[in-house]
Amino acid sequence: MPTDTRPREGAGRIRAIARYGLICVAVGAAVTGLVLAIVGGLERDPQASLPPVRETQLVRAVQHGSCELRRARGGERLRPPVDGPSTAAAAQPRFYAEAPPADRLTAALRAGVIVIHYRPGLDEERLAQLRTLQTVVPRGTIVTPGASGMHYEVAVAAYRRLLGCTRFSDAAIDAIRLFRGRYIGIGPDR
Questions:
Q1: CA nearest 163: which of 78, 56, 45, 85?
Q2: pLDDT at res. 86
Q3: pLDDT number for residue 149
Q4: Which of 14-18, 30-34, 81-85, 109-113 has the lowest mean pLDDT?
Q5: What is the domain class of 58-183 according to CATH?
Q6: pLDDT in tens, 118-173
Q7: Domain ranges of the chain
């Protein structure tokens, strides 16, 4: 007596597809949960967060941030320095607790690295923001205490260019972001 096994095979195939679908949904939910936990954890850390971008024009950001833009003319020495001989090895991009020698910083500028100088004694929240700014572009940014007697609370140097801010404010962070975006990678030794 012949029996028809097709209905059982069809039911088995449907159960296998359903299991596969459930596994995909479970894995997707786990990955989504992990991503949300990571992103959510970063957003909750007030010391690591940067304010939202409010200004997208460099000149207006400079004005709102109590900053000034300078360009070194032939032979002019700005503080912090924005040019120098290329005889020293360039300082490596990272966050420095103690300032590297000026010739190593200017060598980094010549290689297209942006150097953010801050006045020693800056509060912990602003230092955390500078660390975050450095980690956004880790191979192109140095953050260091200012050792040149600068009169700014925070200054950003690119090759022959300087952004100096008398106060380090949320508006100054916009100016720093825009300055770095415009001048990173510019230098004669690049």
A1: 78
A2: 79
A3: 84
A4: 30-34
A5: alpha beta
A6: 999 999 999 999 999 999 999 999 999 998 789 999 999 999 999 999 999 999 99
A7: 1-44, 58-183
Which residue do the tokens 């770095």 mark?
180
Contacts of 95 (CB under 8 A, 6+ apart): 130, 131, 134, 142, 143, 144
Report how far residue 172's alpha carbon sits from residue 145's, in angstroms, rounded to the nearest whole number.
Answer: 17
Q: Beta strand 114-118 with 141-145: parallel, antiparallel or unpaired?
A: parallel
Which tokens in the block code for residue 40? 């959510």
Place of tokens 């880790």: 138
The dihedral through the CA atoms of 122, 126, 132, 134 has a sign that is negative
Find residue 173's DSSP bridge partners: none
Strand partners, 158: 161
- Bridge partners (DSSP) of residue 116 are 143, 156
- Give the torsion sign (CA, 171, 172, 178, 181): negative
Look-up of token digits 């941030």: 65
Residue 37 has pLDDT above 50, yes or no: no
Tokens of 140: 């192109």
